[in-house]
Amino acid sequence: MTSRSFIQSLPKAELHLHLEGSVEPPTLAELSRRHNSPLPTENNRYDIRGSGDVLSEDDVRELYSYKDFSAFMTAFKAVTERLRTPEDYELVTYRLLQKLRQQNVMHAEVYVSVGVILWRGQDFAPIFEGMERGRERGQRDFGVSLLWIFDAVRHFGAEPAAEVFDLAASLRERNVAGIGIGGDERRGPAEWFQGLFKKAAERGLRLTAHAGETGGPEAVWAALNIGAERIGHGLAIALDPELQEVLAHKQIAVEVCVSSNLRTGVCASVAEHPVKKFFDGGLMVTLNTDDPAMFQTTLNREYELAEQEFGFSRDHLRELARNSFEASFLPVEKKLRFLQQIDFLT
What we know:
- By secondary structure, the chain is an alpha/beta fold.
- It contains 16 helices and 8 strands.
- It has one domain (3-23, 83-344): Metal-dependent hydrolases (TIM Barrel).
- The protein has helices spanning 3-9, 25-35, 57-63, 69-81, 86-102, 114-119, 124-142, 158-170, 194-202, 217-225, 241-250, 258-264, 275-280, 299-310, 314-326, 332-344, and strands at 12-18, 105-112, 145-153, 176-182, 206-211, 230-233, 253-256, 285-287.
- Helix 15 packs antiparallel against helix 16.
- The longest helix has 19 residues, at 124-142.
């Protein structure tokens, strides 16, 4: 079996995946035509084209060809502006599950930028119904399970985040597993959310936090101090041996996103990425795509990178796949079923 076919056959879960970042160029062009919305130009001003013009997939690919984190955020904003109706969310959810099944990803825990949806003044209730229709159809047609994680924008502050977390708690019985905080780590310190995280845990929600992507080790410490059970990105962990030791001892999963870190420029080169250092240091590493359409990657591609660029063996890749299920928010009995599939793979 070739390495590529082995990775393809390996049952996997993905734990750090943004719904908005999964929108492929053909789909975003379709949404843009549907809503007659021009995309922003490179200088961040809106393109002044006639309202009847139809955007091509090439326009979207150009939008996704950014070189730094700021330009990535511009592209992400452009996607969120074109996700407007329940039908839009149903479409992108269904197509995401289809794409995951093609890679033998059997389970995904998907971030949704509920904080942005509310900030735009959109009515979330019908949007969630659209998301759930897409999830139900996708699970039926492709056999991929999905849990939602509602993401608040940390630099918007604690009050808007409370609304996001309240929504998550109210929908916990409808496949909403947890909450998270994304956005600017420096302008939205984790300490703002300590009380909210405690309340969310009491209401049965699982806790995640983006930390150590653009901030330093102190951002990861702060996330741990408010109760985060998984750390998104965590690049800065490499700068603090004590932090790495604590994470390894407690087996707190780190949601590593190699291609994302390279494309946004928060990691300067493949050679500097700490994923192998984390793995060798005993951290519970999981591989993820973050925003696969925007970074032109897949989860299979991230596994291939781990093998080709960092020297992960097949046994290592198998361990990464096991980690992805063990660190998930699935019930124990479902985790065991997936782990058995990995064990039976030769």
